[in-house]
Structures are given as structure tokens and as C-alpha cells.
Amino acid sequence: MEFIDTKIQVYAEKHTDEEPVVLKELNRETHLKVLKPRMLSGHLQGRVLSMFSKMISPKYILEVGTYTGYSAICMAEGLQPDGKLITIDINEELESIVSKYVKKAGFDDKIIQKFGNALDIIPELDYTWDLVFIDADKDNYTNYYDLVIDNVNSGGYIIADNVLWSGKVVAKVKSNDTDTQALIEFNKKVHSDNRVENILLPIRDGLMILRKK
Predict the structure, then answer these.
(1) Angle between the N-to-C axes of helices 21-33 and 95-104, in degrees from 0 to 180, rounded to the nearest 10
(2) DSSP secondary structure string, 61-82?
(3) Which end of the chain is less congested by CB atoms within 10 angstroms, N or C?
């Protein structure tokens, strides 16, 4: 997941706004108590998501993959006063930690948690999206994209995380890993989709930024 010199990474973080206190606490608790803490967006990527959200000023945000709620809280910082963020995760065991920090952050009236299979839940949601963040099972990135694209407003954004997959997408030896292949296909698909503009940013594990025309 390391793509730039560590000293440059540290310098970038030092010259980026600090995490809000509540996110520092969530970051710490996730690392202490939850499996696979590297799944957390973290300081730099979290501030990137917050900045994007504030630039877009979305009314409705969809997040596919909640984990412990760090990225949801970051994106909620940019919501319009009457806006909502719907976040979906299959793991109900993390509900208590998510709810605790969503409330601490003051977003308990804006962030709505849903649990179950996102492939079943997304079609039931009656919203048009200004921002969609995809950060769930890699095998289904293309399926999530296909489910949401028609309900993204013109000028709205889709952001997909982990699209560089620790560099495996450009490995010289072809990987049989299904996640790697799924991400290669996803990146190829969205790059050739004339309904969107796209830029792949090598931030953390790779962010694919898509703007619907």
C-alpha cells in the first residue's frame, strides 16, 4: 500500500489539516479493537474525502462499505444542511462502534446505517446521488457501479477506493487473485465509459474519481 517515500508521506500529513478529535479517537479504537485496521481511510485520505465532499456540497451520499464509519463521518462534513448519507455494510457487529462515533461527531441525524447485501439494498433506495463512495468487496465493484450510475446526478461523483490494490494491478507476473482481476476489469470499464470523466489518484491504495457527464 506504500506508493511514495515515507518521508514524503509524513510531510504531506504534517501539511494537511489535522483529523478532528473524534476521528483520532475512532482511528485509535479501530486499531486497538477491530480486525484489519488498514481498511480505515485514515488521516490523509479522510481529509481528501472531506475536501471532495465540501467541494461537491452533496445532498445525498451513498457509501458502499461502512467498516467503522471513519469515511462516512469525513464525507458527512460536506453535506448540505438537509442532506443524508446512506452507508451500507454486511457486518452488523460493527454497528455499535459506528453509532457511537457518528453520534460523537454530531451526525446521528444525517448518517443512516443499513446492514445486509448492498446488491439487494441499493435498488431499494429511492435517491439520486451527488456522491457515491465504493469501498467494499472488490469482486462486486463493477456490479455496484452498474447499480448506481443511472441514479447519479449529472455532475455527480463516484469515488472507488483501493483501485491500485497494493500495486498488484500493475504486477509483472499476472495474479490469479480474483480481487486483483476484478479491480483491473473495473478500472478498464470505467476508464472506457463515455458517461463519465475519470482520474485515478495514487492516494494511499488508489482512488478512482469519476464525474458523471
Answers:
(1) 160
(2) EEEE--TTSHHHHHHHTT--TT
(3) C
